[in-house]
Amino acid sequence: MSIFAQRQNAKPGKAPSQTRADLAPYVEQMKPKVAEALQGHEVSQLSRPELGLRLGQLVSAELEKQPNDLNLLERRTLLTELINWVSAQHPRSSASASAASAAQTPARPAAQARPTPARATSAPEPRQQTSADKPVAPQSPAEDLNDVFKVDERRLETKVPITDTVESAKDAIHAKVMERLDVSAASQLPREELSSQLGEIVSEVLAEEKIRLNGPEQLGVVELMLADMLGLGPLEPLLADEKVTDIMVNGPYQVYVERGGKLELSDIKFRDNDHVVNISRRIVAQIGRRVDETTPLVDARLLDGSRVNIIIPPLAIDGASISIRKFAKKGITLDVMARQGNISDKMAMVLKIAARSRLNILISGGTGSGKTTLLNALSQMIDPGERIVTIEDAAELQLQQPHVVRLETRPANLEGEGAIDMRDLVKNTLRMRPDRIILGEVRGAEAVDMLQAMNTGHDGSLGTVHANRPREGLTRLENMIGLAGINLPAKAVRTQIADAVHMIVQISRMRDGMRRVTHITEIVGMEGDIITTQDLYTFEFEGEGPDGNLQGSFKSSGLRPFFATKAAYFGLEQRLLEAM
Questions:
Q1: Furthest C-alpha separation in the chain
Q2: Domains of the chain, residue spans
Q3: pLDDT (tens digit, 9 = 90+) per residue, 56-69?
Q4: Which pTM was predicted?
Q5: Mind listing the pLDDT tens digit for each residue in 474-488?
Q6: Distances (CA, A) of 511 to 121, 405, 548, 578
């Protein structure tokens, strides 16, 4: 399948590609010139790609001297005919063929190789070819001229530097490349084949526009085009940067990123607001959702698991906004968090024992504080033999256990019907015989069903809640039960919370960018109408170092944990007391 669209300059009634008979006059006209150009050369020692490069330059130069309507495919056919003719005139021995096969180097596209006047405004000055510019040799001799014009897929797998020259060239040819592209055919091709054929079109248009780029720069243009067509356009470099944890697009010309816990303005820009909206639609289409004026905000996820929130005009006044919480490629454990200084070694031990002892744990924190990361770390303590059901608005948990069922909410359709919220999923989960239920975030009436599940034999359940302190987390739970429309006395609600939740772990992103667990708090019971708690560990701020990092220490309260009896049931009491 070819992605080349019908050429607009083709003659009426003429097929996109001429037959070999149609090209016969051109072949006969070129034969004497080819023979003259190759006179004195050891043609039999040349590999087919090397021969293709020499003849490609000659054919391009000759065709420019005379009016013709040959498109790129027709030029390739003409070149193939000439190479076959030369090969028949100069047959190679098996020894020379083997030697040439071992040393051959694929040629650049003819449209790229022929000299063209440089643009005074955007084209760089000609420079000497470096080793980085040289294409990688193929593994076997080329059977046709595809390799002469082909973009090397192995080069596309490497990091191609995207310079201002590459970006300006891509912007200059983007419209013409898309005119020559059969979008329906392109959508059915694998990425490698699409990159190869797209490279041919890019080479042709660059030559027509007299924009001179070297090999890596042409590959960069193809990479940018592919990112626009298949990926997330300008956001692709940020998604590939492992140091970037969050990406925030505020309209087409302002993209912020988070590195090391600090926000900074990047140099990434979109063409216009329509470009941002198109990328947004591509994101949500991957998971069967839509974003438009009727549904201007949506939670989604990327194919790698990264969480995305999108809001577009008219709700977003200054242009579409995209917020991406990147998926961590490396799983973070409690031990890793201890090495990073997020918690102490003894705190890590307490949390491991709490998870192993099947405590119902609520992780509390602000936006971007690391709640989901801590939830993933705690979930690694779950026994592999248990059946786990996760419930999220946009699935992003990375559980390693073999028996995991992941559930995701669904928004309403255009008629306002068909919505499945978290409360519906929690109710359904109770019929699925779960050993543990994990809620990505408790934010509404589902808190009632979650607490009931915790109170009816589903110990070891985990969840997150937005709050700044453990006590505020309990208050939020109480308020969310009120959202369910259940009219219960305050004491009854608090008693249910005290019976269901065993521990609250508070995590915070501090002003130096470091995430730290500031409280490990147990829920002990009730005193009158008040839920009683005790802190097992807290973080105490002590000052700021010369490097700007906050200094402090994780302090144990020295109290005997209330869940020590439960830890004893699992044979972990002694280790728990040692960690305190």
A1: 105
A2: 20-123+133-224, 234-325, 334-579
A3: 767 777 777 777 76
A4: 0.60
A5: 999 888 888 877 788
A6: 45, 37, 9, 32
